[in-house]
Design goal:
Order of helices and strands: EHEHEHEHEHEH
Strand order of the largest sheet: 3-2-1-4-5-6
CATH topology: Rossmann fold
Number of strands: 6
Number of domains: 1
Number of helices: 6
Shape: globular
Largest sheet: 6 strands, parallel
CATH class: Alpha Beta
Length: about 180
């Protein structure tokens, strides 16, 4: 099985300092859903792991979060792709839970769901916390630059490939697989 794991905010959709609180606020990054469809069409399974502390902060509830995710899934489906599994963490950073990135809990949940090892599985994120989570789970970290990328601390990970968009990253992944 070929698996690719994606972060959500900053990778699939534009991130916001004010949180994405409704489907109406969701702005898909140009080319992101088409990139997911290209993965699907080449036999990859796609999973999403996303921190969503806005629920615990009271900015939106899990029903609204589900509606946001439904909009993403529908957009991907409309271009011939699929998101096979989506997991999220609603905890605040200070909760120190096992699932919130940079801890690997969500990635391990994905591995358990697909009954697979994460060795050589790409995890595409836009933050250093995504890199740390990928390494802790044994996955292969890849980074997409977004306005939320901490470029100062990114320098601590020179071995991690960096891309300008999910579309560019997927192009490179698929070219390398040929």
């Amino acid at each position: 099985m070929k698996l690719v794991i994606l972060d959500r905010d900053g990778v699939i959709n534009e991130d916001s300092l004010h949180y994405i609180k409704s489907p109406e606020e969701l702005i898909l990054i140009p080319g992101s859903v088409e990139a997911i469809a290209r993965l699907t069409k080449t036999g990859h399974r796609v999973a999403v792991a996303t921190n969503q502390s806005g629920v615990s902060r009271g900015y939106y509830n899990e029903t609204q979060l589900a509606a946001i995710h439904d909009k993403i899934i529908s957009a991907v489906h409309a271009v011939g792709g699929a998101i096979d599994f989506l997991t999220y963490c609603i905890h605040m950073p200070e909760a120190n839970c096992a699932c919130r990135k940079p801890k690997p809990g969500m990635l391990l949940t994905i591995a358990n769901h697909f009954n697979c090892s994460l060795k050589e599985v790409p995890f595409i994120g836009d933050r250093v916390s995504d890199i740390i989570a990928a390494k802790a789970a044994g996955a292969m970290p890849l980074l997409v630059l977004s306005p939320m990328t901490d470029r100062v601390h990114l320098a601590d990970y020179p071995e991690v490939p960096v891309f300008h968009s999910l579309a560019h990253c997927v192009d490179e992944l698929l070219a390398a697989a040929r």
